[in-house]
């Protein structure tokens, strides 16, 4: 239960080392004390999180690349333009030589490593769009010749790309894009056009300021026939970084966070690019205007193969979400260890203040988010492994096409749930830091803001969950439905809800039941005469709930596999100590009973109502016991994330203000009773002067104070 | 169910008026169409919300004071210093003459009117702290002589005040404050001191930049004895706005939002103020160092009477929370009416896109927040009425002291729940606007950010709920406990959950059951040997849940009273039309079944799985039906809030950036393949030139496009 509440916190002048003073909070010893309580070695847990000691070494090497570039709280005082400048400078400093080697085919970071880089970024910005969606799209959709021209230059940072898909009027529904690419056979060119206000490309990172090129998604029109959305390479800016003719570029304006990232808009008026700018790995147009596909694609199943770049983006966002919850949990747990507070309405006057960590509601809020961070990190590793397997060049295109839909549903579910869990979880952790969490200098405030857009970007969470559920429900047999509905719950005690294996089994059952319920709802609507589409729309609430539960099931599966050392591709499994295993099994069970206790949905899916009203019941009681149990490991569990401390001082604020503030003379001063203020300041001066004279009753007020208390 | 999805949205070039074009989204007709569907007259609902036509008139007059001061999206491009300057300018322009009249006793805005003013503020800032906590504290705690000196000047804006209570190490626990006020009898002065780092005054609005004076809360020490926390008047700055000796002032730095509001810190080193600067309505110190109280207070019950300023602050925050949910709901509902989207995975290629309002999950998220806005607004009116009754000078001090604890618990509960519902609800509404909700220019993003601090400020929500629950649970008789536990639920059908009166009765029952559960948990812990304090801490989860349910009960009570025209002090009850009543009863039931469906249904309290994500449960089904029913009123229900449209363009962003961006030449250009970019731009120029020649195959690409589609 942690060290007993110390008396030190109550005596401002204390009586030893590391006590509160005018220059110290007297808390330097607190975290050391917490660390001594842990039931496992922190480094062992770090190895587990990374996937073995070798990966820890590699991750530290990668994350070390940005050492010395920390902006600290300074970044909250920088303009957007300054943030972008700094991003460009730092990013090129780190990546230029790697980019050259990558372009020459001598270096290729793994997807996991790219995600580590994103996590380590001190000031993230639009180069992410260049290397992740833009380059990934080239890798998957460009022909070899095209890749040699654009891909190699992009890797070497000789051209900078943006990924221009979404439009002002069109987000998740890619098929509804309005941008047109009309083939002009005589000129052997595509005419690119955004014909309406709602067709303007809207949001692409880097488009507004940084990019020289973009991959533009547009409806391909050939001899009066539309072939659907295709990707086209477009040069945006010339060698002096001026927009080319017919291209109107702009930036969308300040956002809630992530302001080093320029978000662009693009209006195209009669812009022409060569016929060969259509990305041509899976189709091309001949000079005489025929639309052709390679044999393997033409004869294979019809699947949007260019979605593979989307799968990768989703997988990295899941990993990033885990990292962001982890960082926020680290700040909030450490803050809650150091911060003490008197209990509200405490009956005993002068009772020692408790550490925030020892308040049950606070402890539960913190530890369940720690559990979420582990769950999301482990699920990200599983998803990255699955996506990597799909990228294997030895897998035939047809096989890839066969696997893609299920992976699309799973990645969409995980992306939706992980980004929701991150957005809601980080915000709750921020609130755990009280008012100070509202200051950007706390670090945790910006974590909350910078990530918030992931919830709705690249697939809104409701849209993704619906799509995943539709996919699953259409494949559900009548037999599967009745067998799911017939299976009873085996959870009959608090102990059942403390057992990770039983919880996993229960989550599988609930997920199946939820899908069965959704299928029944869809069938019911159809029986009442609804079309397939209307029936699916009517059952949307059930479908979303089912997909959310499938997500929780995957998180539990991934967590369980890691805790038991059975995760596929876990190079560190052999190194796991029994102590780490015990702690992970508790944390895994905590994740599960928390999901159950809060009703199986993140607050966002419940309409924004907070889960402050935690229900009791078996799952709730199990959660309470596990939180008591894991209390001693709280600090070690977040230490294991292996981040640098993120606290920064608030002193930098002074540079933003003049004294007196701008507007004082023109507006405030004419209202003030200046004579009265002057009188008051003269009194204060007289009082200070009296103090300095030998008759002054108190030489040094602070000594006087200390004497008066002894 | 709204108008059928129009074909217009699919055809970029359309065939009539108000259709998509390069300069129009073609959506101007949409809201007019929605308004025509409503079942009630919008103005009747506005009157209801305001409390009658006379109040609507008064509110519009008050809110109109800031007309012409709208900053629009421009404010997101202003520095903090510019925001403060503008706040000072605009605030003084509006308030100077009223301030004079208020100081002369000729004008006093009601609490409700003050809250309307806060809602109308275009750029809120630290004058709020001056007029709300500072002036309110003077009204309640200063002696008449003191009020004549400071209160009158404050009302006239001749001195500007801040409210310096919280410290770096001390937030909710006022008794733990470390700032010292030691009486120096010889000098007849108080010595004010912040002896430690954690004692620094931290957060007070206006303290860093604006204020000339502050009310400082400090431990009163007299002849070596501590009398607890008292309030002292301190002049901070002289007639040239320079800090006085011994006073170190600063600003805490950028925050997530609310950045026109300067948040200050204050370090005091041996600062001296006259003995008479102790606020002296309820106690004073004589020249010979005796601590005295007026007769009525000395003989009355021991209650912290200076909490009345806190009650008022809480009440205004509840009202503000209702207003902020309302504004966010207005933006999100209108956006969802105008925005169309193809359904994910829609089977029918080319099917018309639906309005977002016609997607069940989106519709539920929107309408339940509309219901929340109404519930919070009505509860705020009830609370303001109760607090106003307490301010009545005819009520004897002893009677006030008797009423204060219960009102403290109720106001704390409502403040906690309303600010939580606002923070979580506005954020969910923001997400309902997709990616565009992340842009500050959407308006809704800043609504979310600017209000977020209310959740933890002036009493963290967990601390407030705990305090309220402790208060209630200690007064619970054994009889009340067993009678609560014996009462069965009467909710047995979907219809029951569509009936606001039945839901209210059920909420009363659940709230009683929750308090009984909490009392049993406390008693159980005590029986195991826990101290009272430890037992209360151990039962914290149950106590918080009980207080939250009590909060929902109050919201339902207030809503029901307004919907049935039985709210006390409702001047507009007689004017309510039957149509308004019908709509309000539905909305009231929607609020109730949403609360139940999202985690409070009795079935979920008994262990095992909650029905929170079981939309097939009774409450969930009722919610779905009510949302279908209220669909036609969606736009009218938010129109009734009577705010100006908040949409702003994003074009202003351009002013923040240079072209090319800062850092282009120094950092990016050396990396680029300049020759390749130049080659590309020459090609583009050649292509454009070819087009201008008579041989150009397409004169105007956009006409060509339109022809190719016809």
What does this protein look like?
The structure is a homodimer of 710-residue chains. Helix content of chain A is 50%, strand content 9%. Chain A is an alpha+beta fold and 710 residues long. In chain A, helix 9 packs antiparallel against helix 10 and helix 11 crosses helix 13 (461-474). At the A-B interface, helix 4, strand 2, strand 3, strand 9 and strand 12 of A face helix 4, strand 2, strand 3, strand 9 and strand 12 of B.
Topology:
The structure is a homodimer of 710-residue chains.
Chain A: H1 30-36, H2 42-50, H3 53-64, H4 80-103, H5 111-120, H6 127-141, H7 144-155, E1 161-164, E2 180-184, E3 189-193, E4 201-205, E5 213-222, E6 225-235, E7 247-251, E8 263-268, E9 271-274, E10 284-285, E11 291-292, H8 295-299, H9 308-338, E12 340-341, E13 354-355, H10 360-391, H11 397-432, H12 444-451, H13 461-474, H14 478-486, H15 500-527, H16 532-538, H17 540-563, H18 578-597, H19 617-630, H20 634-639, H21 664-668, H22 674-692, H23 701-709
Question: Key terms for this structure?
Answer:
homodimer, 710 residues, Butyryl-Coa Dehydrogenase, subunit A, domain 1, Butyryl-CoA Dehydrogenase, subunit A, domain 2, 23 helices, 13 strands, globular, disordered N terminus, FAD binding (chains A, B), Acyl-CoA_oxidase_C (chains A, B), Acyl-coenzyme A oxidase (chains A, B), fatty acid binding (chains A, B)
